[in-house]
Amino acid sequence: MKRKYRLFFALPLLLFLGWGCGAYLHQPLQTRSARLGEETTVTPLLRTLPAPREKVVAAVYRFRDQTGQYKPSDLGANWSTAVTQGGANILINAMEESGWFIPIERENVADLLNERKIIRSSRAQYEQVEGEQPILPPLLFAGIILEGGIVSYDANILTGGAGLRYFGAGGSSQYRQDRVTVYLRAISTSNGKVLKTVYTSKTILSQAVDVGMFRFVRFKRLLEVETGFTFNEPSEMAVTEAIEMAVYSLVIEGVIDGLWRVKGGEEEKAIRLVRAYSRERDQMQQTDVFGRENQGYRPIASFEVNGLGLLYNGDYPDAQPEPGIDVGASLFLSPRYSLGLNWGMSRLSAPENYQEKASYADLSLTMRFLPQDRFSPFLYGGGGMLFDQAHGFQGSGNVYWKAHAGFGLEYRFSDWLGLSLSAGQNFIFSDEVDDIKHGKYDDMFWRARLGLKVFLSD
Fold first, then answer.
1. DSSP, residue by residue, 238-252
2. How many of the other CB atoms lie within 10 Å of CB of 55?
3. β-strands 144-166, 64-65 pairing
4. If DSSP codes are grouped into helix, strand and coil, which group holds residue 398?
5. Burial of 438 by CB count in 10 Å (0-12 exposed, 13-18 middle, 19+ buried)?
6. What element of type H or E holds 377?
């Protein structure tokens, strides 16, 4: 029996370990040799850009970390910067990958000018021996200057986790999401005009999973097991991806505004990319910082039909849930708040002692936590009346006042149809609903509803 008991709790633990084995079984148990740098998901996108009619000579003087942020630490001060300090190098590489720019050296232009002085001085010395030396060609001058930087690093914009432990065995998982933001602008060297400014961002994900057991298996025999893994998305890769997306956006925006033109025969490809980019840009205008789409949804009213379950909670024991039906209508005071009227019919039942048909009428105020999202939790509360017979509305049943409160989940399939699930407690202001007065608490009942909603919106 004990073996079966232990096996029952060991199986979920093994499943939990197997769920994370993808990262767990790829632990770095030995050194690795140097290799070429990894590409981001945006790098292939840069290579899909149509060829330019003429490449743009561009200078990058600096592309700095302007955040002033240090890495978050739970153990005290950390003087390591949160993002890379080599933004200019990443930007120049992205410009080369796009095929639209000819980058010229300006970040360390003093070193370049000093080297050219050395070359001219050396040639001047050899002219006396070997004759006239070739003239050093002039430096390229830039048509545009690319400026900007990493303007923000927001740590812990989303955090969370989950865990389960039973008799000293269990596991937990945690996650954290940071965000890095990049601005890039193109400036004309002829008049100093800012031709175009683009803005991109990238989230940085960190995850941790741990599993352990701490249990006395026998007298004076303690078993302790711990294992786990963490995953931290490299901030340098996140910054690289954001900069590459900024370069991609700058090229497409420049094509849209006529700042530069594509090569002949590449027009159809450019049109497809511009259309895809425009769709993404329109979508991002309605998306918040957490990636949730703000649909500008403004409901006016809703109607609902629900399956109902009532569970009596009174003076008699052994209560049994009973099915029923619930219908209602709501008027939206705002996208977040609505005022609703519901009517329902079911039974209050403790089969061996008490059983009676009941109906109710409720007036409720509902608050949605995420009114613009398709999926949103909500809270509701209000008051109403309970009729202790099915024909109570005809005046032959007893009427009791009550209050209610609960929570639920709502999902909209579209702007007019949704699904709702809720559960709550109903507090009756009487202890005589079940024809017996016992104890110091009034009668009450639990209620659960699941049904469809039809929305009217402007």
1. HHHHHHHHHHHHHHH
2. 16
3. parallel
4. coil
5. exposed
6. strand 375-387
CB 72 within 8 A of CB 155: yes
User: Hey, what domains does the chain have and what are their CATH numbers?
Assistant: 39-69+81-123+137-284 (3.40.50.10610), 299-457 (2.40.160.20)
CA nearest to 235, candidates 19, 70, 415: 70
- Across all residues in the chain, what is the average pLDDT? 85
The secondary structure of residue 458, as a DSSP letter, is -
What number of other Cβ atoms are within 10 A of residue 349's Cβ?
Answer: 22
Residue 315 has a CB neighbour count (10 Å cut-off) of 20
Across 2-6, 77-81, 235-239, 263-267, least confident range: 2-6
**Residue 70 DSSP symbol:** B
- Strand, helix or coil at 392? helix
In whole angstroms, what is the distance from residue 132 CA to residue 48 CA? Answer: 48
CA distance 296 to 298: 6
In angstroms, the first-to-last Cα distance of the chain is 64
CA angle 433, 437, 443 (to 5 degrees): 45
Q: Which two tokens stand for residue 90?
A: 């990443």
382: Cβ contacts below 8 Å, ≥ 6 apart: 362, 363, 364, 365, 403, 404, 405
Q: pLDDT, tens digit, for every residue of 382-438? A: 999 998 764 444 545 688 899 999 999 999 998 899 999 999 999 998 887 877 777
| pTM exceeds 0.85, yes or no | no
How far is 26 from 36, CA to CA, in rounded Å?
Answer: 20
CA angle 292, 368, 178 (to 5 degrees): 35
Task: Provide CB contacts within 8 A for 80, sequence distance 6+.
Answer: 70, 71
d(CA 381, CA 322): 22
Query: Is residue 102 within 8 Å of 258, Cβ to Cβ?
Result: no
Residue-wise pLDDT for 393-404, tens only, equals: 454 568 889 999
- Whether the CB-CB separation of 147 and 170 falls below 8 Å is answered with no
CB distance 210 to 23 below 8 Å: no
> Which residues, 6 or more positions from 111, have their beta carbon under 8 angstroms from its beta carbon?
none
CB neighbourhood size of 170 (10 A): 18
Distance CA 101, CA 91 (A): 11
Task: Tell me how far apart the alpha carbons of residues 105 and 116 are, in angstroms, rounded to a whole number.
Answer: 13
**In what helix (H) or strand (E) does residue 254 lie, and over which residues does it extend?**
helix 235-257
Mean pLDDT calculated for residue range 248-276:
90
Nearest to 348 by CA among 406, 384, 378, 308: 308
Mean pLDDT of 313-332: 90
Report the phi/psi class of residue 265: left, alpha or beta, with left for phi > 0 and alpha for psi in -120 to 50.
Answer: left
